[in-house]
UniProtKB/TrEMBL annotation, chain A:
Protein function: Catalyzes the conversion of dihydroorotate to orotate.
Pathway: Pyrimidine metabolism; UMP biosynthesis via de novo pathway
Entry keywords, A to Z: Cytoplasm, Flavoprotein, FMN, Oxidoreductase, Pyrimidine biosynthesis
Gene Ontology terms: cellular component: cytoplasm
Gene: pyrD
Record's protein name: Dihydroorotate dehydrogenase
Biological process, per Gene Ontology: 'de novo' pyrimidine nucleobase biosynthetic process; 'de novo' UMP biosynthetic process
Main subcellular localisation: cytoplasm
CDD domains: DHOD_1B_like (cd04740)
Organism, scientific name: Eiseniibacteriota bacterium
Ligand binding (substrate): 48, 72-76, 130, 195-196
Domain Dihydroorotate dehydrogenase catalytic: 7-289
Active site residues according to the UniProt entry: 133 (nucleophile)
From TrEMBL, chain B:
Occurrences of domain FAD-binding FR-type (ranges): 35-137
Name listed for the protein in its UniProt record: FAD-binding FR-type domain-containing protein
Lineage: Bacteria, Candidatus Eiseniibacteriota
GO MF terms held by the record: 2 iron, 2 sulfur cluster binding; flavin adenine dinucleotide binding; metal ion binding; oxidoreductase activity
Family per record: Belongs to the PyrK family.
SUPFAM superfamilies associated with the record: Ferredoxin reductase-like, C-terminal NADP-linked domain, Riboflavin synthase domain-like
A GO BP annotation: pyrimidine nucleotide biosynthetic process
Cofactors: [2Fe-2S] cluster; FAD
InterPro entries: Cyt_c3_hydrogenase_gsu, Dihydroorotate_DH_ele_sf, FAD-bd_FR_type, FNR_nucleotide-bd, OxRdtase_FAD/NAD-bd, PyrK_electron_transfer, Riboflavin_synthase-like_b-brl
Keywords for this protein: 2Fe-2S, Electron transport, FAD, Flavoprotein, Iron, Iron-sulfur, Metal-binding, Transport
Signal sequence coordinates: none
Cofactor note: Binds 1 FAD per subunit.
Binding site residues for [2Fe-2S] cluster: 263, 268, 271, 303
Binding site for FAD: 86-89, 112-113
Length: 318, 320
């Protein structure tokens, strides 16, 4: 077995020691799991999405387990900008980990106000803009599923920070590649593919949804093949880094996303099951690469045989 | 029906047990940063009657000890038919040289608990815990423990903790019928040891008083000296009725709630319970202390704000 491979990657201005990040909403504000997993050992911690005003979230039930996955309908519950700055940011800085703050807004203007407030704060290495929450009535995945809107919004946000700007996309769109290109043209440093898939589960006893709202967002192993295909599509459409996300439970899953061209990956639902999951993904990924004699993660990235790829999609940039 | 089981109304005069004032017990730990995920070994798994199972797990020596009312998340190793761990309240903690043993009483009603029911002795389970806030057993007063069906589990543990504090309790146990008074023998054995008194009620009158635990409470309460404190666990409609009783009679009342959960640690925000109007008002005030990790005047999280809540904290109209 050779020495530990170099896992470092770059996302715009951000250098990460490894390509494993925690998905927004699955790792709190970084300190909740800190006694079992040192966040410094991860590529970065992405926080729970923060919005301008506090949000109470959706009524119960918010969770329904389905075959190989879980539906959630949290509804962006969070403390809002003011308390985030006052109470969470100092804790995040104390972690000495790389922190990416997730921002959510119902309009481009709201996102701009958030970034005006946080864009220059020390201790935040990047911002992931949540363009894809499936569980809110306004400012969710449907509102943001327009390439021009994404492009204009990111162009407006770009001058507000020198930190990395990442756009998180919904898989529930006709052409995710077009949205990714909009983000790239607007000035995003990277895109995340993908957020949860809209899903449903019905309680046939009561004849109603098993969630408080009709639908929720599906995550977990059930979505991995779907997410991988979306990630593949996005990688081929843009030249900025892509963060793969969706059902990653272990190092093998992570290497699949990187093989199709993702620069980094996000671990989400796995952390609910095993709080150390993200750290385990890092360890396992390093071991698997070492076993294959691969010294740098960059050498693995995009290693998928071209023959295995379908013909270029019609909208693909030349 | 034995003499002990019978609820004893005024006939012949009710002599309350001698109950010492609460000792200065430490409040239950918040456990936010104390939980661990550790592999446990099944040491005992047997039928507990009426479709219930009794499970005992040997924990590693360093596993933090749960308090009564706290819970753990049980996760089956792959390949498992379910993805998420299952929250389960602790019914027993026994210290042993090799490490603590935790006991659980549950009913295999869903895919997850049915998979648990297939565990054999020496099988492995991942245990995440201890989680949540347990019963505040340090609150002074005559402890009145009220269990509905398998809600008896955390109260067995509570009775044991009270015994260690040298306090006797009144134990009210109700179910739909005699068969659903699960772990009754175990309950009686513990109460005998500590000199606590067991009062039974069944909906069909097949054991104890014909009626609900609430009717039992109405009969017994006038005979108990003040102050009294209620700790209860059972179906939510029963807990709502007990919460209202406690509020009406100004008796401190604590209820162990249930919810579907994902993480169990407060991170996923998946197990909201509606807060009462007064709590909503209090927490909405500017500069109110954050009630939890994230703070939310509308909803409490069952896993970290609870699972044990004071009666005044929740909106029982939306829960009962």
């Amino acid at each position: 077995m050779s020495r530990t491979p170099d896992l470092a990657v770059r996302i715009g201005p951000l250098r990460l020691k490894n390509p494993v990040l925690t998905a927004s909403g699955t790792f709190g504000y970084g300190d909740e799991y800190a006694h079992v997993l040192d966040p410094k050992g991860l590529g970065a911690v992405i926080t729970k999405t923060v919005t301008l005003k506090p949000r109470a979230g959706n009524p119960p039930a918010r969770i329904a387990e389905t075959a190989g996955g879980m539906l959630n309908s949290i509804g962006l519950e969070n403390v809002g900008l003011e308390r985030f700055r006052r109470e969470k940011l100092p804790k995040l800085r104390a972690l000495s980990a790389t922190v990416v703050a997730s921002l959510g807004g119902e309009t481009p203007r709201e996102l701009a106000r958030l970034l005006e407030a946080l864009g220059g704060e020390p201790g935040i290495g990047g911002f992931e803009i949540n363009f894809s929450c499936p569980n809110v009535a306004r400012g969710g995945a449907i509102y943001w599923a327009h390439a021009r809107r994404l492009e204009r919004t990111l162009a407006m946000l770009r001058p507000l920070t020198r930190a990395a700007l990442i756009a998180k996309l919904s898989p529930d769109v006709t052409a995710i590649a077009e949205l990714a290109r909009g983000c790239e043209q607007g000035g995003a440093d990277a895109v995340t593919a993908v957020n949860t898939f809209v899903g449903m589960a019905v309680d046939i006893g009561g004849g109603r949804s098993r969630l408080g709202r009709a639908t929720g967002g599906l995550s977990g192993p059930a979505i991995k093949p779907l997410a991988l295909a979306r990630c593949h599509e996005v990688v081929r459409a843009v030249s900025i880094p892509v963060l793969g996300s969706g059902g990653i439970m272990n190092g093998r899953d992570a290497l699949e996303f990187i093989a199709v061209g993702a620069t980094a990956v996000q671990v989400g639902t796995a952390s609910f099951i095993r709080p150390r999951a993200a750290a385990q993904v890092v360890e396992e990924m390093a071991r698997l690469l070492a076993e294959r004699g691969i010294r740098r993660i960059e050498a693995w990235r995009g290693c998928l045989e071209p023959a295995a790829s379908p013909a270029p999609a019609a909208g693909r940039r030349a | 029906m034995s003499r002990r089981e019978r609820a004893r109304p005024a006939r012949g005069g009710y002599r309350p047990a001698r109950i010492p004032v609460a000792t200065a017990a430490a409040p239950p730990a918040l456990a936010k940063t104390a939980w661990r995920q550790a592999e446990a070994r099944v040491t005992l798994h047997r039928d507990a009657g009426a479709g219930h199972r009794w499970l005992e797990l040997a924990m590693p020596r360093a596993f933090p000890l749960p308090g009564a009312g706290q819970f753990v998340q049980l996760l089956l190793e792959a390949p498992a038919p379910v993805l998420l761990p299952r929250p389960m309240s602790v019914a027993l903690v026994r210290r042993a040289a090799a490490g603590p043993v935790l006991g659980f009483l549950y009913a295999p009603v869903g895919d997850g608990t049915r998979a648990l029911a297939a565990l054999d002795v020496d099988d492995r389970v991942l245990v995440l815990g201890p989680l949540g806030r347990g019963f505040p057993l340090e609150v002074e007063g005559v402890p009145v423990l009220i269990a509905g069906g398998r809600g008896v589990a955390p109260l067995l543990f509570a009775a044991e903790t009270l015994e260690r504090q040298g306090r006797r309790c009144e134990f009210l146990f109700g179910a739909r019928d005699a068969a659903h008074l699960v772990a009754l023998a175990e309950t009686r054995r513990r109460l005998d040891r500590m000199g606590g008194r067991l009062h039974l009620a069944t909906d069909d009158g097949s054991r104890g008083v014909h009626g609900t635990v609430l009717e039992l409470l109405d009969r017994i309460a006038p005979h108990l000296p003040a102050p009294r404190v209620i700790h209860a666990c059972g179906p939510h409609p029963m807990l709502a009725a007990i919460a209202r009783w406690g509020l009406r009679h100004s008796v401190p009342t604590f209820l162990a709630m249930e919810s579907i959960m994902a993480c169990g640690t407060g991170v996923c925000r998946g197990c909201p319970l509606p807060r009462s109007e007064s709590e909503r008002r209090r927490l909405s005030r500017a500069r109110a202390p954050l009630p939890s990790l994230y703070g939310n005047p509308e909803f409490a999280m069952c896993c970290t704000d609870g699972p044990v809540f004071a009666a005044h904290a929740l909106d029982w109209e939306r829960l009962g």
